[in-house]
Design brief:
Layout: H1 26-33, H2 38-49, E1 57-60, H3 66-75, E2 80-84, H4 87-100, E3 105-108, E4 121-127, H5 135-147, E5 149-160, H6 166-173, H7 182-192, E6 196-202, E7 207-213
Parallel strand pairs: 1-2, 1-4, 2-3, 4-5
Antiparallel strand pairs: 5-7, 6-7
């Protein structure tokens, strides 16, 4: 898996995860690589997260902010935030929010150092970003996502499954490799980080989700 270290003020904070710089082309490439199903994937993600009016939501690895803004529409008056390691992505996301008149706190920040206090959010989302991280960073990321969730708060992480569907084939062509048990390994990492009620399920195309709660299902507070 390729990693990218970013350290300048322009590039953003330093990380061992992969950072995507081509923000201006990201939405178009996502639409093309999903064969036009990206809006449906986004709707499925929001539905699986079960975001309610007034809830606070954090989108980790928010990219250009499309999913974050969809979460804001669902959360209404609730605080919604998005972080990404790429300054270019955050610039585009802020432009979208301004154009749509949506108050969303977009910040350049890392999953391993989420810049919000403990117990800040009802829901944490992560969509198609965990595969950009080495395994040790994934584990740290799950711990951080749990830290910023309120007791009873919910995590929904969406990523590619190990299946051989169309999107999986496309991702392999661009250099990503996924083991057949990849989603199960993500679920195990979430459980190890302290999430309870951890479950997995399919989304459309070659995608799957990992869902868990903080403080549920016998989860012991750390």
């Amino acid at each position: 898996m390729p990693h990218h270290a970013a350290g300048s003020a322009t590039e953003g904070p330093r990380t061992e995860g992969r950072v995507i710089r081509w923000a201006r082309w990201y939405d178009l490439s996502s639409w093309l690589m999903s064969f036009g199903q990206e809006p449906g994937i986004r709707r499925d993600t929001i539905k699986a997260a079960a975001i309610q009016e007034g809830e606070s939501v954090l989108d980790v690895g928010c990219g250009t902010g499309t999913l974050t803004l969809a979460a804001k529409r669902r959360a209404g008056a609730g605080q919604v935030c998005g972080i990404d390691a790429s300054a270019e992505m955050i610039e585009v996301a802020r432009g979208k929010a301004a154009k749509g008149g949506r108050e969303v706190d977009f910040r350049v920040a890392l999953i391993e150092e989420i810049p919000y206090p403990d117990e800040s959010f009802d829901v944490v989302l992560s969509s198609l970003m965990l595969h950009h991280l080495p395994d040790d960073l994934k584990g740290k990321g799950f711990e951080e996502m749990r830290r910023v969730l309120k007791p009873g708060g919910r995590l929904l992480a969406v990523d590619l499954s190990g299946s051989k569907g169309v999107l999986g084939v496309v991702m392999r062509l661009v250099g990503h490799r996924f083991e057949e048990d990849y989603v199960d390994r993500l679920a195990a990492m979430a459980a190890e980080a302290g999430f309870g009620d951890v479950e997995t399920g399919p989304l459309r195309m070659s995608l799957a989700y990992v869902r868990g709660t903080k403080g549920g299902g016998g989860d012991e507070e750390r």
